[in-house]
Design a protein that fits this description.
The protein has about 250 residues and is of the alpha/beta class. It contains 7 helices and 7 strands. Helix 1 packs across helix 7.
Length: about 250
């Protein structure tokens, strides 16, 4: 029997990158998959790629009331959740002196406020024994230039893995976080940097990784599935760093 047979899994931001790879991995393990995203065209394409009874819902995690809207859509369909991969997020990099309130607000509205209230709204829909996995980042652990706002937002998610674990454990819900290092995803094209700066940043980052390469979305997906599966039932409030040794060696 597949690990997620007869289980319902929600992947936010499941229409591209790490989210899509994770949704595909859950589907291969027998799960009924639900994905969200902001772009309808990529949502439709992802739903076709995942196949099966995949449900794709347009949802902007940074919009006011987005979590309640999502919870209502799922409740109307009688959905109960066995796992949530809270992956939706934005990454905008800029030097400290160029940060403005619009960048700050967009980052924190999606990555922190939106994430927090999405979990709050979905909590009544979790089955006992459910797992939540948050998508953090090693940027919260290192002092990378131009990442101050993004890193702070991901540091907040890492603390949520602990504080929300303490609050949700009596409900039978575990919370953990994966913190990827550099991963080859479309997100790198949306950092707000010029192409030349992006190429230079990627080369500099690669030199800092002992394995001398970026990770793949599939490698992150494998960790998310492990933290969502019964074999990780004794793991609570933990951060799993997946960075090719970048912060470890």
């Amino acid at each position: 029997m597949k690990r997620f047979e007869n289980k319902t899994i929600l992947v936010t931001g499941g229409n591209s990158g790490i989210g899509l790879s994770t949704a595909l991995a859950f589907a291969r393990e027998g799960a009924r998959v639900i994905i969200t995203g902001r772009d309808q065209a990529t949502l439709d394409a992802a739903r076709e790629q995942i196949g099966g009874a995949t449900l794709a819902l347009r949802n902007d995690q940074g919009a006011p009331g987005a979590g309640q809207t999502l919870a209502a859509q799922l409740s109307e369909r009688g959905v109960r959740l066995d796992a949530l991969f809270l992956n939706a997020g934005v990454a905008k990099f800029a030097p400290f002196e160029q940060i403005d309130e619009a960048l700050w607000d967009d980052t924190f509205n999606v990555n922190v406020k939106g994430a927090y209230f999405t979990i709050q709204a979905l909590t009544p829909l979790f089955n006992p024994g459910a797992a939540i996995v948050l998508n953090g980042s090693v940027n919260a652990r290192i002092g990378m230039p131009a990442s101050s706002v993004y890193a702070a937002s991901k540091a907040a998610l890492i603390t949520f893995a602990k504080t929300l674990s303490a609050e949700l454990l009596p409900r039978g819900v575990r919370v953990n976080v994966v913190s990827p290092g550099p991963v080859t995803t479309p997100l790198y094209g949306r950092l707000g940097l010029a192409p030349a700066d992006l190429t230079g940043m990627a080369a500099a980052i690669t030199e800092q990784i002992p394995l001398k390469r970026f990770g793949t979305p599939e490698e992150i997906a494998g960790a998310v599935l492990y933290l969502s599966a019964p074999e990780s039932a004794f793991i609570v409030g933990t951060e799993l760093i997946i960075d090719g040794g970048m912060t470890q060696l």
